[in-house]
Amino acid sequence: MTAAGTREAAEDRVFAALANASRREVLRLLRERGPQPVQALADHFDMRRPSLSEHLRVLREAGLVSEQRSGRQRIYRLEAAPLAEVQDWLHPYERFWRDQLKGLGALLDRMSDDDRP
Questions:
Q1: Residue 77: closest CA among 20, 117, 29
Q2: Would the CA dihedral through 99, 100, 104, 107 be positive or negative?
Q3: I need a labelling partner for 26 at 20 to 30 A (CA). Which of 13, 67, 74, 90 fits?
Q4: Could you tell me if 56 and 67 are in contact, meaning their C-beta atoms sit under 8 angstroms apart?
Q5: 3 state SS of 37
Q6: All residues at 6 or more sequence positions from 1 whose CB lies less than 8 Å from its CB, including other chains
Q7: How far is 23 from 25, CA to CA, in rounded Å?
Q8: What's the rounded mean pLDDT across residues 75-94?
Q9: What is the value of pTM for the model shown?
Q10: What is the four-CA torsion angle of 28, 45, 90, 33, rounded to 10 degrees?
């Protein structure tokens, strides 16, 4: 696999991980509350522990979380670096919509009050 193919595969893993609402919620919890043991994360969800473990595995493989053992506990920490790649991918779309809205604003400014719906 080429370097570009490896990078694309990593991006695909990040986007696939973010596609699930439960995984996004895990990331939100880690962002807002800092590193947490699995049980603290599990307390926020109405799912069995193996299901949460699967979500954590997907996030770990995407590089969005890291796991550290502390005695018998596994502590999960947010790893935000892959999200910068998502931001880079989204930036041209943000610029597109900003330009579209700017054009709409200019059109509305040119319309007289009588022309407005």
A1: 29
A2: positive
A3: 90
A4: yes
A5: strand
A6: 9
A7: 5
A8: 87
A9: 0.73
A10: 10
Q: Enumerate long-range contacts of 45-53, CB under 8 Å, 24 or more apart.
A: 47/22, 52/22, 52/26
Q: Among 55, 103, 96, 91, which residue's Cα sits nearest to residue 76?
A: 55
Q: Which tokens belong to 66?
A: 């890291």
Q: What are phi and psi of 91, to 5 degrees?
A: -50, -50
Tokens of 61: 């493989």
Q: pLDDT band at 86, cuts 50/70/90? A: confident
End-to-end CA distance of the chain: 56
Residues 6+ apart with CB under 8 A from 44: 25, 29
How many angstroms separate the CA atoms of 20 and 81, rounded? 19
